[in-house]
């Protein structure tokens, strides 16, 4: 009985691993693609290619995001939602799920050094 339960649990784990991963990957790709469109329409004027036209050292490259504590979805979402200094707040301009998509895109692009 114990072997049967163990085998069943392993089978369930394998099914979850092999059959949900592509769906999760597709969802992440869709989120990033949506974020790219939103970024292009709302952020690219100041942050084209991950740069920052107002404060060059506070760009969206991986090392700068890490240096300024902006290397997590939560930090980027807070910054985009509430704004800070020269950056305007997008709360009310963008839906919460749109801001999450932008954060996913920024992190994805920073990991690629903003190269397509």
Automatic annotation (TrEMBL):
PANTHER family (alphabetical): CYTOCHROME C6, CHLOROPLASTIC (PTHR34688:SF2)
Keyword tags: Electron transport, Heme, Iron, Metal-binding, Photosynthesis, Signal, Thylakoid, Transport
Domain of life: Bacteria
Localization per Swiss-Prot or TrEMBL: Cellular thylakoid lumen
UniProt family annotation: Belongs to the cytochrome c family. PetJ subfamily.
Protein's name according to its UniProt entry: Cytochrome c6
Post-translational events: Binds 1 heme c group per subunit.
Residues spanning the signal sequence: 1-25
HAMAP family: Cytc_PetJ
Keyword Transport appears in the UniProt entry: yes
Residues that, per the record, bind heme c: 43, 46-47, 87
InterPro entries: Cyt_c-like_dom, Cyt_c-like_dom_sf, Cyt_C6, Cyt_C_IC
Record Pfam families: Cytochrome_CBB3
Function text: Functions as an electron carrier between membrane-bound cytochrome b6-f and photosystem I in oxygenic photosynthesis.
Subunit comment: Monomer.
Gene symbol of the encoding locus: petJ
Domain Cytochrome c: 30-110
Gene3D superfamilies assigned to the protein according to its UniProt record, in alphabetical order: Cytochrome c-like domain (1.10.760.10)
